[in-house]
């Protein structure tokens, strides 16, 4: 799973560079993201702007990651492509996850790729 992480004004922004989060990649995605977030005490924004397909395994991985984020810290998903946004609406994931527009690209003070 190709992930890029950086900080913007205290928020950890993780960009998913792969186009799919599905049964074939969900476990790897979840493990890689869990390792990247680790004990991070900051809010987390997951940028899915490169992802154009998510299946139920991918949604399950997102829920698992949402639970990894420290209680009381913000977890949000951004940059949803129309197909992915439709899946979020149809499965009502939009009611349990905070969905925002694109993350800010300025203020990057750290970068790491996996």
**Which structural class do the helices and strands define?**
alpha/beta
Largest sheet: 6 strands, mixed
* Mean model confidence by pLDDT: 86
What percentage of residues falls in helices of 4 or more residues?
A: 25-40%
CATH architecture group name:
2-Layer Sandwich
Low-confidence stretches: 105-114
Instruction: Calculate the terminal CA-CA distance, rounded to whole Å.
Output: 7 Å
User: How much β-strand is present in the residues?
Assistant: 25-35%
Strand adjacency order, main sheet: 7-6-4-2-1-8
Number of strands: 8
Using only CA atoms, what is the Rg? Answer: 13 Å
CATH homologous superfamily caption: STAS domain
Indicate the CATH class: Alpha Beta
Task: Output the CATH topology.
Answer: Transcription Regulator spoIIAA
The global form is: globular
Write up this protein.
- The chain has a six-stranded mixed sheet with strand order 7-6-4-2-1-8, covered by helices on one side. The chain has a two-stranded parallel sheet with strand order 3-5.
- The chain is built from three helices and eight strands, in the order E-E-E-H-E-E-H-E-H-E-E.
- The N and C termini lie close together (7 Å).
- Helix 1 (26-37) packs parallel to helix 2 (56-68).
- Strand 6, helix 3 and strand 7 form a beta-alpha-beta unit.
- The protein has helices at residues 26-37, 56-68, 82-90; strands at residues 3-8, 11-16, 20-21, 44-47, 53-54, 75-78, 98-100, 112-113.
- With 114 residues, the protein is α/β, with parallel strands linked by helices.
- The protein has a single domain (3-105), classed as Transcription Regulator spoIIAA.
- Helix content is 30%, strand content 25%.
